């Protein structure tokens, strides 16, 4: 999680959001609510398509919230409700406490321009404008004068490590660079919320990983609330604080990468997580045994026991276990000893993970 519970602030709230495409959407919605029809049944009976089905969730300020699922599961449809590019068939949407459903068109337009930015897979840059002009576009739309907007654009370009490329045309840059320009353009608007629709999917794996790392660094220093669509669970696990998994318009599970990998809610999610190495996501907290139980069986844990934070990842614990057979003391964020991890706890976790795979 981004911050501890007491300090969390909600940025986005969706309550009972439905989107049904098709002329008979109202009839279809009424019936699906009464009889829980499947996506296929709604299509056959009403010639309508369920895009989003009764989704309620909250996203915290500063959180990177990944939305993942197979093609057609409703990821883009869901995210396009956050800036009201799509009107929901039913439900409420609040951004920073503001009910965006009740905004008049002009206020909504301003809200979109100033508070929310989108980054797409296909870059959506103007090929025959300079990189700097592309990056400055959100401020041009806002009517900011040329000097100020080019200055802001140059700062954004520096953030994505493309200083010096401002005078090139967008089409002269490689795919990875164009995607960074897309990100810089979104950042120039200094939005509260970034909506990213498969931004790195078109890139080759090495560049993609590099951009993920750069994005994570930027997001943590700039504290932007980010909704990040991906169909790649590896990517979601790597960059998401939490992940929502969608199927046929429903959100079937929301949790931290660790929650999802350790406790998949159903066989659909289990199938996704089968290929994910537990080493990357599991934290000490999930594998430790309570300190009282350990000490009742084995006696007091020596003061010299190696000590780790409860959010430490499994990889670090395994490295320590290779060095020394001693049980490890796990501490909470206040430094209080809360658990113990032994070599056998680690082995059990690894073996269970391998069996799942
Ligand atoms: N404008 C539209 N009219 C009719 N049906 C639509 C429309 N947009 C989306 N849909 C349907 O809504 C469902 C969800 O589509 P959506 O594009 O949100 O899925 P997705 O998970 O983002 O897929 P992908 O990963 O392929 O982009 C799909 O069944 C799709 O066919």
Automatic annotation (TrEMBL):
InterPro entries: AAA+_ATPase, ABC_osmolyte_uptake_ATP-bind, ABC_transporter-like_ATP-bd, ABC_transporter-like_CS, Gly-betaine_transp_ATP-bd, P-loop_NTPase. The keyword ATP-binding applies. GO terms for cellular component: membrane. Keywords: ATP-binding, Nucleotide-binding, Transport. GO terms for biological process: glycine betaine transport; response to osmotic stress. It comes from the Bacteria. Gene3D superfamilies: P-loop containing nucleotide triphosphate hydrolases. One of its GO terms (molecular function) is ATP binding. Residues 32-273 form the ABC transporter domain. Belongs to the ABC transporter superfamily. PANTHER family: GLYCINE BETAINE/PROLINE BETAINE TRANSPORT SYSTEM ATP-BINDING PROTEIN PROV, GLYCINE BETAINE_PROLINE BETAINE TRANSPORT SYSTEM ATP-BINDING PROTEIN PROV. This is Glycine/betaine ABC transporter. The lineage of its organism: Bacteria, Pseudomonadati, Nitrospinota/Tectimicrobiota group, Candidatus Tectimicrobiota, Candidatus Entotheonellia.
